[in-house]
Recover the amino acids of this structure.
């Protein structure tokens, strides 16, 4: 079994992620072989396992009692993440995920609904078998609720041409930063790291998550179909107006409105024109600057963590992950 | 606040169910007002609150520590039930639920996906705040997982004209009996009732759930649109071949196949012809006999419970609920 090449530089965490992946694969073994195989293929398709990785790294700032349970905990975070991806693909009607057909493209939306639901139960089940601490259960429930409230918020923002930067931030906080924040925090909390480290973990996770999502959103405007694992310009067509567009629109709203009014009917030529407009108003550069600000906040906070080897790994991984030129 | 008239005869349990409903309504209050209002209307639209009711009744066979937490527990079961209903309506593309438009008819399938997911998190959150017992959490996770594995099984049975009675039983066990069984068992377990009562509760819940689902499936073949809260013949058109049809088909498979091959294309006239065929081969009577067998098993087991007032209520409610002529 292997994990994403990102982890090759760090053999210890790589080994732990392989264990985590093993738990994930085992946890989805059910009577329904198609679903089991699809999910196992999906786990194999190169996800970076970032949420488990941050959890595992932060768990080293405290005391580790049982590795077995710790891997279950790490696996639960990725399973929760995949559950939301499977359901997001229904909403976005997305044909591709991680260079593979999405569950809904393979088996239809009906199966995709239940597969996501099934993954929520797997998450819950792993969690229940990974901790004796009711506070951990309760924090998970709260965090999961926040993610879903965020998803529902986001639905209200779709095709809203008046979306503000503040609303966008709130939306990506729920969509992405929440789970990054929680994964880091849960690692520190689970291992009973000092309270100050737990709070730092939260802040670091939040800033990583925000930077990560902004950069992901930038990619949708930057890339060509060939070098991306998902279709381009999908966000805009689906009515998710993200930071590069919002910042460019702040310069000249009227220029963009005729395009946005076409919603899903935007032609390839028109998309190119929008791309040029965004370039003209420096939407991408400005968004990159904001992402960099979040990245720098994360890195500065990581520097303040207690001096153990994992601190350096956290620093390095975060730098690589959020490197604009990567 | 009121609950279904079924409970008017039992003022104590009625009062407890009103408290439970209050917890449910509070638990779905979020920023997104449309979702909150839709769910609150849905809770108000006359569900019988059977799962919470059985939970509450069985909780009286042990020791009750906190009513507040007990109501949360009861509410969590109904929320879990509603979550599965919201997602089922996506699968079945169902326009109506409890005489109201379904969430997906109101807001589209995207919102319905996230609303169901949100309810799963509410369930999880209520649960985490209702018990200090990790075993309870773990049992819930297991039970929820079984329900979802059941839903996925069911998808494989759709439009399968070779479906056997045994497969049908397995399917309704996951779909319905599992949560009835669990609600009864959880009541007894939560209140630390004697182990024998806990086992009886399981058996009783299972038999009630099986009878209940068979009767619900019978209704789909029996009723006219007017007296039902949901469209008729929906199951067959959606490819869910239930007991009356399966039993009738066992008598003359060939007679039914030309109809079933039309799947969703079945005309009203053809549906009437299928109804007549089912009548001819006594599909409904035979299914009713099987339902009665499950009902009798439940009632016989209830009789063996320790002699407290709730035993009589359980007996009476179950009899009323599962009365064929009701």
């Amino acid at each position: 079994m292997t994990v994403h090449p990102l982890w090759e530089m760090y053999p210890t965490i790589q080994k732990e992620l392989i264990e985590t992946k093993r738990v994930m694969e085992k946890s989805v073994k059910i009577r329904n072989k198609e679903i089991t195989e699809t999910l196992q293929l999906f786990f194999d398709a190169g996800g970076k396992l970032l949420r488990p990785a941050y959890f595992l790294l932060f768990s080293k700032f405290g005391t580790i009692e049982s590795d077995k349970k710790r891997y279950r905990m790490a696996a639960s975070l990725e399973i929760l993440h995949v559950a939301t991806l499977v359901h997001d693909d229904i909403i976005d009607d997305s044909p591709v995920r991680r260079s593979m057909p999405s569950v809904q493209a393979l088996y239809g939306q009906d199966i995709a609904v239940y597969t996501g639901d099934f993954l929520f139960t797997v998450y819950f089940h792993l969690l229940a078998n990974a901790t004796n601490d009711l506070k951990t259960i309760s924090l998970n429930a709260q965090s999961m609720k926040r993610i879903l409230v965020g998803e529902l918020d986001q639905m209200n923002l779709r095709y809203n041409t008046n979306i503000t930067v503040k609303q966008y931030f709130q939306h990506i906080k729920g969509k992405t930063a929440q789970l990054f924040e929680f994964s880091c925090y849960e690692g520190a909390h689970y291992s009973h790291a000092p309270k100050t480290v737990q709070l730092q973990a939260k802040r670091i996770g939040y800033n990583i998550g925000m930077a990560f999502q902004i950069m992901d959103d930038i990619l949708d405007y930057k890339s060509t179909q060939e070098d991306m694992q998902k279709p381009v310009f999908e966000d805009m067509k689906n009515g998710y107006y993200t930071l590069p567009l919002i910042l460019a629109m702040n310069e000249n709203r009227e220029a963009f409105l005729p395009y946005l009014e076409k919603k899903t009917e935007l032609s390839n030529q028109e998309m190119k024109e929008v791309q040029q407009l965004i370039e003209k108003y420096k939407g991408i550069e400005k968004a990159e600057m904001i992402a960099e600000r979040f990245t720098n906040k994360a890195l500065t906070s990581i520097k303040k963590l207690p001096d153990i080897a994992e601190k350096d790994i956290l620093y390095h991984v975060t730098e690589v992950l959020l490197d604009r030129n990567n």
